[in-house]
Task: structure prediction
Amino acid sequence: MSLSQGVGVMTRFAWVYWLGVFFLTALHGCVTDSTYQDVEDPYDASSEALVANCGGTVRYPTTERDFNRLYAQRVFLASGGPGAHLGRDIAYRVDESIYPIMCGRIVYYGPASGYGTLVVAIEHTLNRAISVTSGDGRKTLVTTFLSIYGHLMAATPDGVTQPWRNGDMVTTQDRIGVVQTDALNGDGAEHLHLGIRLQSAAEAQRVDGRYWMRGYDSNPSKRRFFADPAIFLYEVMQFQRSILSHPAGSYLIDPLGNRYVVSANGSDLHAIEPLTAEQEGFTQRPLLITEQEKACYFISDEYRPRFRQQPGSVPFVGRSQYSPVVYLFYGDRQNVYHRDAFVSWEALLSHGYTADNIGWFDETELDSLRRLYPVQGIVRMQEGSLVKARGAPAVYVVSNGRRRPIYNWNTFQAFGYSANQIYEIDADALNDVAGPLGTVLRLEDASACPARGI
Result:
């Protein structure tokens, strides 16, 4: 269910801040910490994560291992062609899928002399200028650059033609083409030519005319406008400060599909089974991590579920026909039975429930449930949830019962979060729904390894 659908359901059920002013006032008095003030953090561009303006970071066209598999030893500036080689030729089998090294805008998608039936040129714009090594060995500041992919074809092995056109935006997860056969690729056996031009498309065309996607140097030399793809990718990756630790309560999935929850101390990982993760409401916000990130944590004991794990003891949600309050009914590990009230519709959604999950009970049934589940409590937003106040820029991550602000959008993206995961609520409900204000999440804190408990 989308957030807009949830709001519609909320209206249908006459969902209000239904726990009552007295109850929430008492709750607020218990959890408010005057140490924190809900104010905007001063903007510091030097702490920005390096990303493309369209979001996301840099990658290899396939894998790092493939990237090191050269075709005919054609590295950058290799001789043997009509001039020094202005790219890196990578050996691939026919039909290998190729992906952009960074998100960007397609500025050319079609055939070209020397490149065969398909060459793709993508223009990328970074969120800040960086210093990289140009083809003549000098350092140059770059904000916009081109990546060029030659010797491809648009049709996949199953006959599906890629949908791309000039002007389309692509991400690093979009297949832009597949490796063409030797008969049609314009240059020898199957391989990819990857070129990096340190200019925008308009600048390249102004300098080089119809040769702006050139694969070889000429006289006068144009190598200063290009970069060795191997050096360039390494340099950009160094500017990208890796996220090596995540807030407590984050739900992480490693490359093998193993699932973990970051412990309350922020330094350990608890392994969690998929069914438990679903029951506990974590599965809506998975963060994919690398083995490098995982290695920064101590793998601790298994996650201890809040809910009692036995047949016939599955948690469920329900409400009276005469009241909008929705309860979570469950037995805990100590055989204590709870009925906890969700503090808002967003809190319910954040735990993985929707309107379809809500059971409706008459007063007799509800009285029986009150006796069976006597312990009362409340349910705020699930750990790891993302929330913001309507009309305000700051996004908060719920962690250890507090909402920790991220004021830098690029840092938000570097953590692996997505805008469609954010719940928007009224500003005056933030404390009660998502917890009191916590410390700011900064990129430098998340770049430490071993993880030090951010």
